[in-house]
Design goal:
Helix 9 links the parallel strand 9 and strand 10. The protein folds into 2 domains: about 220 residues, FAD/NAD(P)-binding domain, CATH 3.50.50.60; about 140 residues, Rossmann fold. Helix 1 packs parallel to helix 10 and helix 8 packs parallel to helix 9. The protein contains 12 helices and 17 strands. It has about 400 residues and is of the alpha/beta class. The strands form 5 sheets. Strands 1, 2, 11, 12, 13, 14 and 17 form a 7-stranded mixed beta sheet that branches. A 4-stranded parallel beta sheet has the order 8-7-9-10, covered by helices on one side. A two-stranded antiparallel sheet has the order 3-6. It binds flavin-adenine dinucleotide. The site of flavin-adenine dinucleotide (FAD) has 39 residues, from helix 1, strand 2, helix 11 and helix 12.
């Protein structure tokens, strides 16, 4: 019998799993796929926490400021390759070179050195897909008008055969190469070959994903100028690396991860969940636990199935909050369907319509499965998953 079973191994589920395993609990995570972290920038956005706390149904308001803050601090202690501050946003560059605010970011993404730079050298790997140096240069000149921006095109031998046959090289391909032994050596040679400049020059590099990669971090630490990384379009190597680091941490703490298979249903009696039934090619398998966490990722993760006019929670058939009108025709406006999810009490247990009745005593709902928040307009995707995951992992 497990102390806890977590259904869904995205950011929220892995956070809960690590926190519970740290506390000595025996945890099983069952996850069908990798989750949306692999598409995200790798930065964790918290949004305007003070303002979101005032929306009474928002997950931040259910938990309270102390818990949200504690989740953020816990993450940074867990992964010192990331940095953030409760009192101010970090700034990172979008894939098009425009600065944007974020909550916790990989250290190598922080744009601080750009504020005093005189020259920015934008490294432009040949054939990199979805990389637009001229647009990036224009945006950099707008954001840092005191700087000159020089584009530095280069090519590596590794992808020559790809270029010959017209095969596109994605950011993930480049990252994989930079993280290999030959890639690290070539990167060092490349950075050493740049003109030796004063401390006022900053190098911008797309697609390195140095966090969690010791040899790359060593190369970057040895340069005479700061090297800043840019985020990339999905799928993102940085998000992918964070996902791998979370999985590794969970397993190193003794957690068990079952991937590639989904939970079909949960058996329960008198409002107490007892066994998760897993889909398998043969007969279904049942796993028993004292407590359960539902972290199946909402519409994007597969935890909610939606058609044009219906939405259904896929494991337990839990009732969902569904706004009267789902969509908004305004371009880039808030889309009400983003708030579809399960309503919960302050313990994150699912509640019935009206919010009074707790539906299952030993089940908590976290991350994108919760109702009443919107990661796009509130920019709090990472923050809500982290805070709710940390809280639920503490309760198991
Ligand atoms: C393209 C994109 C870009 C983003 N960019 C950012 C960003 O820059 N900053 C930021 O803070 N946030 C960003 N977000 C939002 C953020 O990534 C999510 O809010 C957060 O990762 C959600 O985590 P989650 O664990 O709730 O869900 P998910 O990551 O979706 O994980 C859910 C998991 O549950 C699994 N699952 C589903 N059903 C079952 C089942 N029946 N049995 C077992 N497993 C199941 C899924 O396979 C998946 O692994 C982005 C999201 C997307 C989609």
């Amino acid at each position: 019998m497990w102390d806890g079973i977590i259904i869904g191994g995205g950011l929220a589920g892995l956070t809960a799993g690590i926190r519970a395993a740290e506390r000595g609990k025996q945890i099983l995570i069952i996850s069908e796929g990798a989750g949306s972290l692999t598409y995200s920038s790798g930065a964790l956005d918290f949004g305007d926490v003070g303002q979101l706390l005032s929306h009474e149904d928002h997950p931040y308001a259910l938990l309270g400021e102390t818990v949200v803050h504690a989740g953020m601090e816990w993450f940074q202690n867990l992964f010192p390759d990331y940095r953030g501050s409760w009192s101010e946003f970090q700034e990172i560059l979008t894939p098009l070179g425009a600065p944007r605010k974020a909550g916790i970011v990989p250290r190598s993404h922080n744009t601080e050195p750009l504020k005093n730079a005189k020259v920015i050298i934008l490294m432009a790997p040949y054939g990199l897909k979805d990389f637009f140096p001229e647009i990036i240069k224009t945006n950099l000149l707008k954001a840092y008008p005191q700087c000159e921006v020089e584009i530095f095109p280069f090519r590596t031998g590794t992808f020559e055969s790809w270029h010959t046959i017209g095969k596109p090289v994605t950011g993930m391909d480049y990252t994989k190469y930079w993280q290999s032994q030959p890639g690290v050596s070539e990167l060092k040679r490349l950075l050493d070959s740049l003109p030796q400049t004063s401390g006022e020059t900053v190098i911008l590099f797309p697609g390195l994903a140095a966090a969690f990669c010791e040899p790359l971090k060593e190369v970057l630490a040895g340069t005479p100028f700061p090297v800043i990384e840019m985020t990339s379009f999905p799928p993102s190597a940085c998000g992918h690396n964070l996902y791998s680091a979370l999985k590794q941490k969970f397993k190193s703490l003794g957690g068990e991860l079952l991937t590639g298979t989904g939970v079909q249903s949960i058996e329960s009696h008198n409002k107490v969940c007892s066994r998760a039934i897993v889909r398998s090619k043969g007969r279904p398998t049942a796993f028993s636990a004292d407590s359960f966490i539902l972290a199946t990722g909402g519409i994007f993760g597969g935890g909610i199935e939606a058609t044009a006019d219906t939405a259904q929670e896929t494991v337990l058939g839990l009732p969902l909050y569904v706004p009267a009108q789902w969509t908004n025709s305004e371009f880039l406006g808030e889309q009400p369907y983003a708030r579809i999810g399960i309503e919960a009490d302050r313990e994150l247990r699912p509640v019935g319509p009206g919010g009074k009745e707790v539906l299952f005593k030993n089940l908590r709902v976290i991350g994108r499965m919760l109702a009443h928040w919107d990661p796009w307009t509130e920019t709090c995707g990472g923050g809500v998953s982290l805070a709710t995951g940390w809280f639920a992992g503490n309760q198991l």
